[in-house]
Amino acid sequence: MSCTLCPRQCPIDRTAANGFCGCSSVPKIARAALHYDEEPCISGTRGSGTIFFSGCNLKCIFCQNIVLQDGTLGEPFSVERLADVMRKLQSMGAHNINLVTPTPHHDAIVSALKKAKQNGLTIPVLYNTNSYESVETIRSYEGLVDLYLPDLKYCDERIARRFSKATDYFPTAMNAIGEMIRQVGFMQLDENGIATRGVRIRHLVLPGCVFDTRAILDAIASRFGTDCPLSLMSQYTPIPSCTVPPLNRRLTQREYETALDYCLSLGFRDVLSQGLDSAESHYTPPFSDHVTL
After folding, report:
1. Domains in the chain, number
2. HEC profile of 60-94
3. Cβ neighbours, 10 Å, residue 8
4. Does 17 map to a domain?
5. DSSP 202-257
6. What is the pLDDT of residues 10-37, one digit of tens each?
7. How far apart are CA 20 and CA 12, in angstroms?
8. Is the pTM for the entire model greater than 0.85?
């Protein structure tokens, strides 16, 4: 049976072979731990219960977690063990369960979430995605996922093709985000400033691509309105394997300030910004073939 979980629509039976994402039908996890480097409303004071899945359907050439892209790193997890890890992270004090790059692992995640919730999981579940999602897959998480953190990467199809081999990225991502917002609305915080429900759109400003950032912000304002919460990120960090200009250099202060000024000029009211000191490789967590909690 061909995999239809993401827009790639691979003609591959993942019980027999790996898809474009590098994944089989059994998820691999390269890290499960409390994580403190997300937005303050996500990490809070106790950390986000982050589960990093191996494999990805986008393959960005500049990915900071590039070691996870091909799906080889990590430890296979059964549905039962994945549910247990979610409950263990909750017992460690996590503010939420943060599923990072979950797209290829839909079936196992849905089953694990149902099992974990039946056995005492009560903290919010966050779906942390590159936004290259099918509406149908996102719709199937309704009632299971409380928070969505979609990273909206590109507007220009030439950039999407060049950097991620996904010419249809922007319209596909916008439709998926629209479904997320339909389900849970915009992000809501509790009395301590911790996210409990809703969507916040992330966008990483890329060097040499501020024009595309402007187009993305225009599109968000037009379709979702300026009340839509944003994270405008400056943390782009060149990786050694990416030698393609302009991605082989850091973002400049002027580029980021230009993007942020434009964002605010459009009237966005809830914008999380960053300093350029966030563009450091030590913010990338360690991954391994074996997960211990």
Report:
1. 1
2. CCCCCCHHHCCCCCCEECCHHHHHHHHHHHHHCCC
3. 20
4. no
5. EEEPPTT-HHHHHHHHHHHHHHH-TTS-EEEE------TT---TTTTSPPPHHHHH
6. 989 999 999 999 999 999 999 999 999 9
7. 9
8. yes
- The tokens for 211 are 């024009």
Residue 155 lies in a domain: yes
Structure tokens that stand for 247 in this block = 């991605």
Q: Nearest-CA neighbor of 73 among 15, 22, 32?
A: 22
Token pair recorded at residue 145: 């996922």
Q: What are the angstrom distances between the C-alpha of 5 and each of 15, 23, 107, 108, 183?
A: 14, 12, 9, 12, 19
User: What would the pLDDT profile of 279-288 be if each residue is shown by its tens digit?
Assistant: 665 567 889 8
Residue-wise pLDDT for 220-269, tens only, equals 999 999 999 999 999 999 999 999 999 999 999 999 999 999 999 999 99
Give yes or no for a contact between 205 and 215, defined as CB atoms under 8 angstroms apart.
no
Q: Which two tokens stand for residue 103?
A: 């797209």
Could you give the 3-state DSSP secondary structure of residue 195? strand
The CATH number of the domain holding residue 125 is 3.20.20.70
CA distances from 3 to 52, 105, 227 (A): 21, 11, 36
Distance from C-alpha of 186 to C-alpha of 141, rounded to nearest angstrom: 17
Identity of residue 159: I
Return the amino acid letter for 246: P
196 to each of 45, 67, 221, 230, 233, how far by Cα in Å?
Answer: 15, 31, 23, 16, 22
How many residues does this entry show for the chain? 293
- Asked if the structure places residue 4 within a domain, the reply is no
